[in-house]
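2024-03-11 09:14:02 INFO receiving multi-entity request
2024-03-11 09:14:02 INFO entity count = three
2024-03-11 09:14:03 INFO echoing inputs for audit
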Amino acid sequence: MLVDLAGGWNPMWGRLAWSQIPYDNPILAPLFVAVVVGAILVLGLITYYGKWTYLWKEWLTTVDHKKLGVMYILIGLVMLFRGFIDGLMIRTQQAWAVGAHSSGVFGATHGYLTPFHFGQIYSAHGVIMILLAATPLLVGFMNIIVPIQIGARDMAYPYLNALGLWLTAAAGALIMISLFVGDFAHNGWFGYAPIFELQYSPGVGVDYWIWTMELVALGTTLGGINILATIIKMRAPGMTWGRLPIFVWATLSANVIALTSFPALQVALALIAADRYLGAHFFTAGLGGNLMLYTNLFWIWGHPEVYFVILPAFGMMSEIFPTFSEKPLFGYITMVLASMAIAGVSWLVWLHHFFTMGAGPYVNSAFSVATMLVGIPTGVKVFNWAFTMYRGRLTFNTAMLWAIGALFLLLIGGLTGMMLAVPAINYMVHNSVFVVAHFHTMLLVIVYAIFASVIYWFPKVFGFKLDEFWAKTMFWLFSAGTVLVFVPMYMLGFMGMTRRLDYVFNTVWHPYLLVMEFGIAVYMLSVLAFVALLYVSIRDHAKNQVGADAWGTSRSLEWLTHSPVPFYNFAVLPHISARDEVAWRRDNGIDHVQPDHYEDIHMPNNTGVAIILGGLTFVLGFALVWRIWWLCALSLLAIVALVIYRSFKGDPGYIITAAEVEKMEKEALRREAQISK
Amino acid sequence: MSSHASNVDPKTAELWDKSHYQHDVISTRTFGYFMYLLSDGMLFATLFAAYGVLSYQHSYFGGPTPADFVKPWYTFAQTMALFLSVLAYGLGMNALKHKNKSGVINGLLAALVLGVLFLALDIHDMTHLASLGISVATSGGVSAFIVLTQVHATHVFFGLIWILVMMAQVLTKGFTTEVVGRLLTLRMFWHLQAIIWVFVYVFVYLWGYMS
Amino acid sequence: MSHDQDDPTLHPEVQMSTSQGYFSGFAISSILMLAATFLVTSHAVPPFGLLMVISACAGMAIIAQIYFLLHIDVSEHNIWNTVALVLFIPLFLITIGLTWWMFSQLYLHTMIMPGMTH
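2024-03-11 09:21:47 INFO inference complete, emitting structure
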């Protein structure tokens, strides 16, 4: 049943052996030491300050959607940094290994990375940035903001929400451990058949890649179900579909995509696993396998996934432009329709990732036209944002700057996307760095929207604003880095440079590559500015306290409750009367009216089951990677047993009495009154 | 204030909920579970797409095809076992309507026995293939055939575990909101297996037998 | 929560079960599967026509099961399930249909095989 392995295997340890630890690698070994020292330091500090109980009770076992969202965002930021370091390494190799006379160190003929190591780095960069940085960051914001924006106390399934987080964390841990135990896939982030087959990739790298992506896919599907059910079933009274904040609409359309498309990824990867573990012939060369079937199945998910990450970013921008233009959003209905149209069309365009497969003129033209159709709803959105700002009273704080930056990048990325939608052009630039520059521009739209949201919603979650000086410094450094890295990349694409080169043969390209290297150094400075931003803001937090309506011009429902948001969100659920409820209340002078009496609130209990399930899933993934069958069986059994245990135990929840609510509300109002003085 | 798209008078507007608005726990649970089932359906759709691409003549690489090893009447017996199991579960749910505990338990027990029968027939079929030397490693076409049918069988297997758990919960906890909600979600899960099976039976077994 | 105090077995989604519905769903789909199996084993119909007939059997069996077993209709308690299903069905068709189309075109352009060009 199981395939024969070329290398060693034993029943106890599977494929795991000391030789799999890269202690002789001059890059990984010092990093490993640094990670171990860092981990000991962090754990030691937690123990020293006696924070374990706090950590366990308040964070690790929480089912509060805001805390889970914050943890999603923390995972996302850590992985964003890891992905950035991968990018830095790729750029450095390409700036170094140019021409036959370039030097080589650490066993590489040119540059400092061997081709196999370089392959692992660009594969990890892609997987991490899309699935473990962008996705958790966006899911984090959806988690925090959506329930408050629709006037709910929590998600529809708080426990499932925690489970989704810990599955994502397990996936992150799995990809991180691949640095130090074994290796990672070298087949690009989306994989190519048949290079990921056991015959051509006998190591464990591809297995790490498969199970990491499977775990993220599972976590995101569960999260998607939760958010959809929350939006459809948990809206406050009066929150009709026409009054739903635009970010909620964007989240809704994005999660429809997540729910429908992630199963395709799970199948594509499971079939690779069937090939590698059971010797099946889905994607093999010969014996009836079909190489392009994999590419097809992957992009059935892959293209909708692109819109899964961009639609929430559009939603964030649609919240930020009106707030800092002091005008309602222009064209609310068209904005909603455009989101839904993008979600719909996203299902009809996936072949444009492999026009060069050669399916012929009919297929290529159909998918080309469908791809160009995406430009219509996206154009509608761009014009709506422009008209929102038109004749508005603009405030150029940093959130607004990031949002405007995203708008510019969207224009560049969108227009180059239109070029790529033409099969004739696509054949010319397929797999060139022009394509890489295009999709990085689009993903930077998301990054810009995320940083805009960090600044915009930070005061809502923590109760104080971020420091404007450092935020602006970071924005301008980041933007300079973007220009320096990606403008030369577009040029190199036109000059014919292909992607994923571990050695650049053409010395004419060297100056451009050096400019890009300089650009990535500027990005590094913006990372430092971000650290400074957090440090300075937390140090001075007492000076930057805010009330419920942190910006004074906010519009949607999340700004009605206190900042930071109490764990029950609203003491009494609001009754919604208008589309921009907070703006409507403010304009009518009723924004400070408080409920006249409080009632008991029913809340779910914390649970340690979710984090334990996450841990067991990590063990299962690790055992599958190393083919330790007894551990697979054991962890799977433990997962099933724990799920059954939880279903017997249930959660009756607990009651916060009206008196307690009143006390907490009085305290929050007293604090707000102090700030406004 | 037309810019807010509201025609509510702010002077008389109700600002805070006074209607003791509560969510319907059971409906929220069943709707979320139904969405999960649809995404599970998408999983099968993708598998069917793969099967479609891998069921050309060349996909079998000159080796055995489903026409050589599918026995329609045998699989029809499997079909009847699954359909009867679904029917039994449905009748159990009808007993739930009348708060008839023994009726629910009998329905679940019958569904369990018939489900086990379905799975036993499937396992017997697979061991028969193995005895002919046919496995996932035979060819791309056979890989697609076996994986698609066995993914369905895996669903049935986990459904059987779930039925056992629910029998225990009905006996120990009675008809609480949580137990009733789970019985409803299990009903959807179990009935969906029959729906998927129609596709598997007609387009994998019967069509494979034809070609 | 609203049903915590009430009896959960009175919930409309419990009350919509009927033995008659389950028997109808079972009978219709069983008869259709029996007919399909009989037609396939008897080789009475030419292959293309047979494919059409058994597809029709499958389609009708699915509709019967979705209606009688999953209770998909436009009543207040099922409307969101129906909306979700209606949104999903085109995607199922797209996934299978477009994949089939692009690969049949691909084989047409890249592989010379007997029996491929109907």
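2024-03-11 09:21:48 INFO post-check: The two ends of chain C are 61 Å apart (CA to CA).
2024-03-11 09:21:48 INFO post-check: The mean pLDDT of chain C is 85.
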